[in-house]
Design goal:
Oligomer: single chain
Distance between the termini: 52 Å
CATH class of the largest domain: Alpha Beta
Order of helices and strands: EEEHEHEHHEEEHEHEHHHEEEHEEH
Number of helices: 11
Largest sheet: 9 strands, mixed
CATH architecture of the largest domain: 4-Layer Sandwich
Strand content: 25-35%
CATH superfamily of the largest domain: L-amino peptidase D-ALA esterase/amidase
Number of domains: 2
Helix content: 25-40%
Radius of gyration: 21 Å
Length: about 400
C-alpha cells in the first residue's frame, strides 16, 4: 500500500488501471507490415473527457469523437496510424463512423460508445475496408499485456513508444492512472501529429474529469513544442470506469487534488517523451520561467523560448547564444521588464538584468551538451512560474519532413 498523496509509477501503460484491455494490429495502412491499428476497451462503461486541437481544420475522427465524448460515456477507442482521415469531406466522416462500427460489432457494444482517432498523411481517403478486415482479430487479441502493442500501433515518425502509469493513494482507495501517447512532428499543441489516451479506474464524474483533464493538458501537453505546427488531429482523451470503487471524486476536495496530481504526473511524463522524441532531435530542452507577473505570462515566455527555431538550432550547435532566449521572451506577449531579466543555461548565468555577463563559454557549451538542456529565465517581476519543453533543431528534421508523404 502506498502512502496517501504519493504517486507510484507502475507498469502497464494504458491497461494499468483495472478493467482496461488493449491491443495492436497491422491492417496494412503503413508499409512493411508495421502495427498501425490500436484498440482500447473498458469492460464496463466509462466516463469520458476530451481536449482537442484549436486548428480550424479538424479531421473527421476528431469531429465524430468530440460529439460522442459530449454525451459523457464511452467503452472503447479505435486508433489508426498511417492516414489522418483529414480534409476528406463527407467520406471522411462516413469512414470514421465505419471504423467505430467495426469496433462496436467486434466488441458487441453500441457504436456510440466507440471513440475514433487517426494520425498520418492528410488529404488521402482512409482505406476503411482494411481496418474493418483487421478489427475482429484485433478485438479477439485484447488483453492487459498488449498495452505496448497498442502504443506501438499509433506511432508515425516516433522512434519510441510512449507509455506511463501511476498509482495514487486516496483517503479510501488506491486508484491507477495510465496512458499512452504518440507524437514526434507537427507538435505545438493548442487545445491540445499528437494523440494521447488516458485510462483510470477512478470513480469520477464526467464534469470533474473534464475539468481535471483540461488543467492537466494546459500544464503539460500545451507546454511542449517541436516545430511550431498545430495538427488537424490533436486530441487527448480520458476514460474513467470507476472500478477502483472509491467514493466519487468531487471537485474542490482533497481526493480531487490527489487525482489531479496523478493525472498531471502521467500527462507531464508523456509530454516530455513527445518533446524528447521530436523528429531528428538529439536533446530535450526544458525552459523554466520564474518571477512572472501571472501564470499566463510565464507560460507565454517559456513556450516562446522552447519554440524558438533560432535557439533550438543554437542548442544543436552548442552555442550559448542567450540573446536568442531574451529575444523570444520579448516577442512572446508576456508582460515583463527587459532590464530585469536574468538567464541561466544549466548552472551558468549567461545574462543579468537584460545584459551581457562575462561567463565561461566552455562551461556554457558543456551545459548545452547535456540531456536535457535546462534553461531558466528569471523575469523578476512577480511570483509565478511555468515550464515548457522542446527539442533541438537538427538537419534530420528537414530530411524527415522533406519526404514524409512520399
Amino acid at each position: 500500500m502506498i502512502n496517501a498523496g504519493a504517486y507510484q509509477p507502475v507498469p502497464g501503460g494504458v491497461t494499468a488501471a483495472r478493467g482496461f484491455l488493449a491491443g495492436g494490429a497491422a491492417a496494412g495502412l503503413k508499409k512493411n507490415g508495421q502495427l498501425d491499428l490500436a484498440l482500447i476497451y473498458s469492460s464496463t462503461p466509462a466516463r469520458a473527457a476530451g481536449v482537442y486541437t484549436t486548428n480550424l481544420v479538424q479531421a473527421a475522427p476528431l469531429v465524430l469523437t468530440r460529439r460522442r465524448v459530449a454525451a459523457g460515456t464511452a467503452r472503447a477507442v479505435i486508433i489508426n496510424a498511417g492516414n489522418a482521415n483529414a480534409c476528406t469531406g463527407a467520406r471522411g466522416l462516413s469512414d470514421a463512423a465505419a471504423m467505430a462500427g467495426a469496433a462496436a460489432a467486434a466488441l458487441d457494444i453500441e457504436e456510440q460508445q466507440v471513440l475514433v482517432a487517426s494520425t498520418g498523411v492528410i488529404g488521402v481517403p482512409l482505406p476503411v475496408e482494411k481496418i474493418a478486415a483487421a478489427v475482429p482479430a484485433l478485438a479477439a487479441s485484447l488483453s492487459p499485456e498488449n498495452h505496448s502493442r497498442a502504443a506501438r500501433a499509433i506511432m508515425t515518425t516516433d522512434l519510441v513508444a510512449k507509455e506511463y502509469a501511476v498509482q495514487v493513494a486516496l483517503a479510501n482507495r488506491t486508484i491507477t492512472i495510465g496512458g499512452m501517447a504518440k507524437g514526434s512532428g507537427m507538435i505545438h499543441p493548442n487545445m491540445a501529429t499528437m494523440l494521447c489516451f488516458i485510462t483510470t479506474d477512478a470513480n469520477i464524474g464526467s464534469q470533474a474529469l473534464q475539468a481535471a483533464l483540461k488543467q492537466a493538458v494546459d500544464d503539460s501537453f500545451n507546454m511542449i513544442t517541436v516545430d511550431g505546427d498545430t495538427s488537424t488531429n490533436d486530441m487527448v482523451l480520458a476514460l474513467a470506469n470507476g472500478q477502483a470503487a472509491n467514493p466519487e471524486i468531487m471537485p474542490d476536495t482533497d481526493d480531487f487534488r490527489l487525482f489531479y496530481g496523478g493525472l498531471l504526473e502521467v500527462c507531464s511524463c508523456l509530454a516530455k517523451m513527445i518533446a524528447r522524441d521530436g523528429e531528428g532531435a538529439t536533446r530535450l530542452i526544458e525552459v523554466t520561467v520564474t518571477g512572472a507577473p501571472t501564470v499566463q505570462d510565464a507560460r507565454l515566455a517559456a513556450r516562446a523560448v522552447a519554440g524558438s527555431n533560432l535557439f533550438k538550432a543554437a542548442v544543436f550547435g552548442q552555442d550559448a547564444n542567450w540573446g536568442r532566449i531574451l529575444c523570444a521572451v520579448g516577442y512572446s506577449g508576456a508582460n515583463f521588464r527587459p532590464d530585469r531579466v536574468d538567464i541561466y543555461i544549466g548552472d551558468v548565468q549567461v545574462a543579468g538584468n537584460g545584459g551581457a555577463l562575462d561567463f565561461a563559454e566552455e562551461r556554457a557549451a558543456a551545459m548545452l551538451k547535456q540531456d536535457p538542456v535546462t534553461v531558466r529565465v528569471d523575469l523578476k517581476c512577480g511570483a509565478h512560474r511555468a515550464t515548457a519543453w522542446g527539442c533541438d533543431l537538427t538537419y534530420d528534421y528537414v530530411r524527415i519532413n522533406g519526404s514524409y508523404r512520399t
